[in-house]
User: Fold this.
Amino acid sequence: MNDPILTVRGLTKAYVMVRRTLQVLRGVDLEVLRGEFLALRGASGAGKSTLLHLMGGLDQPNAGEIIFAGQNLARFSEAQRTAFRSRQVGFVFQSYHLLPELDALENACLPARIARTSAGEAEARGRELLARVGLADRLDHHPTELSGGEQQRVAIARALINGPELLLADEPTGNLDSRTGGEIVELLKTLCAERRMTLIIATHDARVATQAGRVIELIDGRMVQDA
Amino acid sequence: MATESKVSVLQSNLVEGKFDLSGRGLVVGSDFAANLRLRVGDTLSVYSPGEIQKMKTAYDHHEQSGVLPDDYEIRGIFDTGYYEYNARFIISSLANAEELYDLNDAVHGLFVTLKDPELATGFKLKLESQLGPDYDVSTWMDQNSAMLDAVLVEKNLMFYIMFFIVIVAAFGITCTLITFVVMKTREIGLLKAVGASNRQVMLVFVIQSVIVSVFGVASGVTLGLFAIYVRNDFLHFMNHVTGFELFPAKIYGFGELPALIIPSDIVIICGGSLVICLLAAILPARHASKMNTVEALHHE
Assistant:
């Protein structure tokens, strides 16, 4: 935990609506160290998810820089951002976003197959990761046959399958009861520590934030606290 | 007779009796026999054009003389499947026909059968140049030009109708795929979030369309060929059930619905359908690939 893996400078993002412009981020500056566990806190609409999307290359800012491992993500082409999402970042979403047609193993292997990893190797990695998240005996279960916590574990295995350096979790406990949510955060924390991965969680849950090494508070698109 | 059977289908198309023209024997078509209620073994009285002329002359001169017709025996009834022949042709021996028309040792005309009927026009030119202007040479195409033109018009019309049906079907594919893309918006967002490129997302929908199109074309060809195979059974069934003749021989000239399967036509139709279906898929597939990842992920 030393050199910065991600540096954000003067980041702004606005969405143009029909009659008005919604300013979501108003100049965010942030530095995240390699291997750090950072929590982004804030009320709904504060800009946590937007900041997470921008840092993960899902969207582009209106102004500002996002420096990841020395490269400015804001200037990436579409193809470069796709490669970045495929190889260097993993996402965990509040509503899991598992494909209902695929079983747990196939869902976990999806990013590896998209990245053209051979089926055999992807499956081996998927089995190992699902075993690691405690789902070794649920490989052929479809999302509808899994509980919320189990679905989120599959989503975590999916996020880790391409060995990313950065794991971004957007309200990962939002759809779970507090006990299961606590287990998921604990799992994320352990997995990131094992793999020396950087973990950034967007949450409005104070209990989740207390688990993080550092907490950033966002109010109305501005960083007001860096504790 | 052995040689004649190679160029004429009459002998193999007998439905009653036998092909016996000896003595005063006649073979007639099935529709002709049905119209006159003739059976094998019946006698048919025939006035030749010469005899009718004699009767007319005698009548004009107020002469009290009668001209008797020649009596022939029906030995066989044929069904060529072609109404024109079945209703209008009577087959007799050459000697009887020559006598009927007072031709001595001559004939009115000769039928020539070619192995490939499509070569008739070229062969006609060859015959015309060899026989000179005293002979009139006509092909089956000349004799049936009105019907062939009508068939050609029908074929072209069918082509346009088919084309518009395929266009409508293509719109159907587009609409289905647009609905599918909208339904799968969140999944598209997820695929892009985990590293799928625009091209990969587009390919997902194009490949889906290709699979549907190939399956559709294969089913269409199979069902189409089956429909051709059972077409006459179907017509007979409909005729039996409704009492209404869908393909009247008197209008179309054929006893049964003929069909010619041209492989190149099938290739063109299948290839064209596949291309149109593929084009119909491109717009929704492109729309899917260009979706904003964040908006797609949050689609309700």
User: Anything to note?
Assistant: Chain B has a mean pLDDT of 88. The CA atoms of residues 95 and 292 of chain B lie 91 Å apart. The beta strands of chain B are 14-17, 25-29, 43-46, 70-78, 90-91. The first strand of chain B starts at residue 14 and ends at 17.
